[in-house]
Amino acid sequence: MAFMKYHKLYLSFAALGAVSLLTLAGCGQQASGHSGHGKYAANQTLNWTELQELSTADLSKVTDTVSFTMLQSTQEGLYRLDAKGKPQLAIATHARLSNGAKTYTFDLRHNAHWSNGDPVTAQDFVYSWRRTLTPKTAAQMQSYLFPVVNAKAINAGKLPASALGIHAQGKYRLVVNLTKPVAYWKTLLAWPLFYPENAKVVTKNGNRYGTSSARVVSDGPYQLTKWNGTSKTWTLAKNPHYWNHANVHLTAINYQVNESTTTSYNIFTAKKADETLLSGQQVKNNLNNPNFVKRLPTGTQRLDLNQKKVPALRNVQVRQALSAAINRQQLVKNVLQDGSVASSGLVPVGMGNNPQTGEDFSREAGVPQATAYDLSRAKALLQKGYRATHTHQLHLTLSVGDVDATKQTAEFLQSSLEKLPGVKIAVKAVPYVQLINQQSAGNYQLTLSGAQSVMADPNEFLDNYLTHTSDNITGFTNAQFDRLMDQADNQDGNQPAVRWQKLVAAEKVLMTQQATIPLFQQAKSQLLRTTVKGIIYNPAGVPFDFTHAYMGRA
């Protein structure tokens, strides 16, 4: 990814694995609020770079990491994750569980307000969740809400939104009813999809809601400004209406989009930015730089194959042949060169451990042949696939985002796949937001898909390939896989060991059938000025939280 799209992995966003800090100093501490005194610099402005633009400010419709990061900074829900990735009460002041852990009752703080001065109420949560699930909203990640009573039927148009199992009891009490116990539910509630929305503002703007900074309001630490919907710069300004604004230190976070890390690196070097993502050679050149920060998030890149657009891709041997023609070790070591790790399966490292043995899921569920490079085997498989599909060639278009690192990966794949007889690959690079739309509409033949987990649980990635899910953009279908996932998600929730084995078996089916072609788990190394303090980094879920960030004295 440059920054990756959140398909319904699990989510991406997986067990919110180990959380680390970009810097430990000052994180979570309460500040005096006096910039220019003690540890705080006089200028509390952070300049940040991105490789991709914002797609939307409408939390019901967001699917990409850049936009989710913006929402985590400008909005707030019942919980917010702390420096250890644990959910802590935010808009909620108290939570009670009942009905066998299927009913949650939340008391909300009375001093939370939107940036237009309106109070944040329980009804704002009810409205938001109902809106996300209403079919006409056309949300893409709404399945995370499906544990709520009647959510799935509402999304299918079979029940009215008023039947959803979320209710306001007065202005400041919220009751949520689930269909089953969900162990990671509080963690999900800290994710922007579950945040409230201001019905008055949404209704006023209609279809234009969230399409510019003027058409959205905030209840979080910052508010979005200076974004016209397509601009490659925007600013998060400190929100004076935020209930905890006294402990927000930054006055502004200025963003600028540069598709090339060469450009953002030069801007960083010129001291016009405080952060830049690094590409392969830049990583090698900066290993001893005091500003260097290395990390390996639970984000992956894979090659998705559209079986609906290309009939030959419905043949498992054709799909296996394409996978076997790709040398992933060569890709990460010689092309990316940024610390990325070759994938051994769909689910990356760090997405959960066997509750009995502690074994990482990716090791236990691996199907070696699904990601092993063997060009001779690939050619033999393809010949069998050609015979079975009554064809003799594959002329395919590979759709990717117009980011340098993505283009390099695409060129490597093009070269690798064209070593197979009769295979020709045309690479089509398009703006990132356009690529997201094309993937969602199934308007591609081959595409590079980036996926980031919402929490550290294997079903974050596996659920993307269920037959009847909007996140399945490939057309893959397998009854055994669907059955295993249904049992793991809906039958074995209170039996961790049994559930684990079902998920392992599901991954093996997925990889044996080569439903997709995993490529690598992508490193996200950066240069971050040592004067930037207090940013929380989370390898699973939304990566950056700037709530307690500040600029330290040099």
Automatic annotation (TrEMBL):
It is found in: Cell envelope. Gene3D superfamilies: Dipeptide-binding Protein, Domain 1, Dipeptide-binding Protein, Domain 3, Periplasmic binding protein-like II. It comes from the Bacteria. InterPro entries: Peptide/Ni-bd (IPR030678), SBP_5 (IPR039424), SBP_5_dom (IPR000914). Keywords: Peptide transport, Protein transport, Signal, Transport. GO terms for cellular component: ATP-binding cassette (ABC) transporter complex; cell envelope; periplasmic space. GO terms for biological process: peptide transport. Residues 1-25 form the signal peptide. Residues 87-470 form the Solute-binding protein family domain. GO terms for molecular function: peptide transmembrane transporter activity. The keyword Protein transport applies. PANTHER family: PERIPLASMIC BINDING COMPONENT OF ABC TRANSPORTER, PERIPLASMIC OLIGOPEPTIDE-BINDING PROTEIN-RELATED. Belongs to the bacterial solute-binding protein 5 family. This is ABC-type oligopeptide transport system, periplasmic component. It comes from Levilactobacillus acidifarinae DSM 19394 = JCM 15949.
